[in-house]
Amino acid sequence: MHLHELKPAPGAHRQARRVGRGTGSGRGKTSGRGQKGQNARSEGFRLGFEGGQMPFSQRIPKLPGFKNPFKKTYAVVNVSKLSRFGEGAKVDAEALFEAGLVRAGLEVKVLGTGRLKRKLNVEAHAFSNSAREAIEKAGGSVKVLGEPKAPSPRRPHGPRRDATEQAATKESASPQAE
Questions:
Q1: Is 166 inside any structural domain?
Q2: For 121-139, what is each residue's pLDDT tens digit?
Q3: The pTM is what?
Q4: CATH code, domain carrying 96
Q5: Whole domain around residue 106: which residue ranges?
Q6: Dihedral angle of Cα 32, 37, 38, 40, to the nearest 10 degrees
């Protein structure tokens, strides 16, 4: 068999309908679309159009606000769950994951529900005030991971030095030169 002998399977290729080519063709004049009406027109309808019924996008209520794309989501652990660790143990995200308390890849936040009777060294990305107090009251320590750095002072918009400052420096420099 050669390339020139290849053909598609029978019935795989159908000839295109040639519409609008005269009345003798059987599909002339209205091209098989009937007389008037929406389906006889060429434009069709716009996206979301529901035949004149109030479209879904207009029917649903529009709530105020927006979804914050920078929202922080934490894996939450209560202080009561930390009791399973031994006295003086270091409790970090890895230890919590191994204990099955958090899922991998999420930042950990410790909340203050429950009681803690053991001294633990807890490392997490965030702590509630009550959790911090409970851990420190039991004699343990709290370490916040990845604390945000202090914001840099913002420069005012516009030129770096005010025109009045520049004029004042010029005046103070000129009497010394004379």
A1: no
A2: 999 999 999 999 999 999 9
A3: 0.51
A4: 3.100.10.10
A5: 74-144
A6: 20
